[in-house]
Amino acid sequence: MFSSIQIGSYFLSLAHQEDKNLTPLQIIKLVYLAHAWMLGLHEKDLINENVRAWDYGPVFPKLYKKIKMYGNSPVKEIGGSEDVCPDEQQLEIIDSVWSSYGDKSGGYLSALTHEKDTPWDQTRTQQGIYKTIPRDMILEYYKNKAKQLNIARSVDDEL
Predict the structure, then answer these.
(1) Interacting residues of 150 by C-beta distance below 8 A, sequence separation 6+
(2) Closest CA to 118 of 44, 53, 46
(3) 119: nearest Cα among 148, 91, 143
(4) Helix or strand or coil: residue 76?
(5) Measured between alpha carbons, how far is residue 114 from residues 9, 35, 56 in Å?
């Protein structure tokens, strides 16, 4: 497992390889989606931290604190990517999330994670703001989403 900062940095390096920029909102949502799809498809954690149900969606607080200074501007660096050596399953998920969502705006990604009955929505409704989104809730939601989209345990091109 990795820290949210490590995976955020990994996504930023993917963006830089393609001469793209990512805002903090995009990075936070990409990291969450990678973690969520890893749980839903493989029942394994990608991130070794709890995700919280904040006002603006699911957030890994450590990652947020590291990149919040950029506001709505592109993130220049995060640090920590040198320690990221994903295994084949992890890399498959990260690459699939990148190819499916890497070109989406922060607003789009935020709306996606704010949909009714998502783990974020359920946690905020049942427990309130800033609470930890239960791991099993994320796992079950994305497992069911994978079934609906007919995604096998081996990730297709679309998530």
Answers:
(1) none
(2) 53
(3) 143
(4) coil
(5) 24, 16, 8
Neighbours of 11 (CB within 10 A): 26
- Residue 54: beta bridge partners? 57
For residue 104 the two structure tokens come to 């989406």
- Token output for 38: 């890893």
Length in residues, the chain: 159
Q: Judge contact between 112 and 37, C-beta under 8 A.
A: no
Full pLDDT tens readout for the chain, 159 residues: 899 999 999 999 999 999 999 999 999 999 999 999 999 999 999 999 999 999 989 999 999 999 999 999 999 999 765 667 889 999 999 999 999 999 999 999 999 999 999 999 999 999 999 999 999 999 999 999 999 888 765 555 456
Q: Residue for token digits 């091109």?
A: 157
